[in-house]
Design goal:
By secondary structure, this protein is α/β, with parallel strands linked by helices. It contains five helices and eleven strands, in the order H-E-H-H-E-E-E-E-E-E-H-E-E-E-H-E. It folds into two domains: about 20-140, no CATH class; about 145-295, no CATH class. Helix 2 runs antiparallel to helix 3 (about 100-145).
Length: about 300
């Protein structure tokens, strides 16, 4: 006697409700575990020395971490509640309890809504990090051109609670460069809407004024100066600079202060400013060596083995 379609559906309904989401969850977990276990395979990286930091290295690490965090948020706060709801739904249908049904639905909706808000916040932060990374990468690539003029160029120097985006060393001196990437309005029109005015005390954008960038640049230069002076054994002056990629920068005063430019054509700027007396070649080498020690701390990641205590 042929089995009615509705009877087959009733018998397979519990599996459809619980089994299919569980299968997807199992596949997702297996894939994630394989990704995390890749570095522990029985192979090793041929590189035996740490790498130099790249432009925006700190931001790139933060972007990578936030991408994984976003996946965890989506999985635990959006996908898991739906899976739990599907599991409870089978029992609810059997008991025919409306109170339990609506309670479970409410908890599921609230958990998913919380996950959606957390995901939105993470993705918004991720967009800001990517904008900052684009700026640092752009300025860093332009600065690399200074190597043809005899400069040594370094990126993303890590301190305890902050980082110096770029540092360059040449005959004209040592410079610590802070990059600040600011987005533009879509409705901006005319030169005034994309021009940044620098009066020596503040950086004036079309719709706001920023003084913190200059103070940060000065603080970075002071920290690096003290660090290098102690390491080299004689005074090393570091000049602060601020790069604002993508904007037209215009200085409106003769007041001395940090160098402010738009990140382009550094060969027309840094070789012509700095200290009056050129740095000796041996001092350049000693300073560059000390900065390299601060930057050569990126471990190769492929087949990376856990360090033994």
């Amino acid at each position: 006697m042929p089995i009615a379609i509705d009877e087959v559906f009733k018998k397979t309904l519990p599996f459809l409700i619980v089994g299919i989401p569980a299968i997807f969850a199992f596949i997702f977990i297996v894939v994630i575990m394989r990704v995390y276990s890749f570095k522990n395979r029985s192979r090793k990286n041929p590189l035996t020395e740490n790498l130099l930091r790249s432009p925006g290295q700190t931001l790139l690490n933060q972007i990578t971490d936030l991408q994984f965090k976003s996946m965890e948020i989506v999985f635990f706060w959006c996908f898991i509640p739906i899976l739990v709801y599907a599991i409870f739904l089978n029992a609810i249908l059997a008991q025919k309890s409306l109170v339990l049904l609506f309670s479970t639905m409410l908890v599921t909706i609230l958990a998913s809504l919380y996950g959606a808000l957390k995901t939105y916040a993470a993705l918004k932060h991720l967009a800001n990090l990517r904008l900052a990374y684009d700026g640092e990468l752009s300025v860093g690539q332009e600065l690399n051109d200074l190597m043809f003029a005899g400069f040594r160029v370094f990126h993303d120097i890590k301190a305890k609670d902050f980082n110096i985006d770029h540092a360059i060393v040449g005959s004209s001196g040592v410079f610590a460069i802070e990059t600040k990437t600011r987005s533009k309005r879509l409705d901006a029109k005319g030169a005034d809407s994309v021009e940044v005015l620098y009066d020596g005390d503040s950086i004036n954008f079309p719709h706001w004024k920023d003084t913190e960038i200059l103070e940060q640049a000065k603080g970075n230069a002071q920290w690096l100066s003290e660090k290098l002076t102690k390491a080299v054994g004689e005074e090393v002056k570091v000049f602060p600079a601020v790069a604002i990629p993508g904007w037209f920068t215009k200085k409106t005063t003769n007041k001395r202060g940090p160098i402010v430019y738009n990140g382009k054509n550094p060969r027309a700027i840094f070789p012509k400013c700095g200290q009056n007396k050129p740095l000796a070649e041996d001092k350049i080498q000693r300073i560059a060596h000390q900065i390299e020690q601060l930057c050569r701390n990126v471990e190769p990641i492929t087949f990376n083995q856990e360090k033994q205590p």
